[in-house]
Give the backbone structure.
Amino acid sequence: MKIIKFLLLLLPWFISTLLIKDTSFYQNLNLPFFAPPAIIFIIVWPLLYLFITISTYKIYNNFKVSELKSYNISLIINYLFNQLFPISFFVLKSPFLGFVNTLLVLISSLLLYDETKKLNLKSSKWLIPYLIWNIFALILSLTVYFMNF
């Protein structure tokens, strides 16, 4: 039952990846020297989704869902912004909307981190790589936008 619960928390994070069928838009943009190759994204995002899920799983194992109103709100908001990125960037082919969405993902991930830390310090540590990556993604996204404006 624990594995099923874990998978139910993990799998929704991968929904937006189904929308990315063609990465040529990204590869055809003017990219900064620090832009990672597409393979890095394919490696990093599943790891981050795994870390987010571990953090979430630990919270849901220690608290009743009804006790987690602000946590649940921050998690859902972060999840929605995270899922909207592929649409705003790859489907709409908009570096500007991608930047705005990346900013919203970063802000919501900071809120999620804060809510998680209030509940369980160990669980919040699983979100630190996600925060670091989101800061990098924001810098990359802003740079890509200005280089292709």
Q: What stands out?
A: The radius of gyration is 16 Å. The chain has seven helices and no strands. Helices lie at 2-10, 24-27, 38-62, 69-91, 95-119, 121-125, 128-147. Residues 2-9+37-147 form one domain.
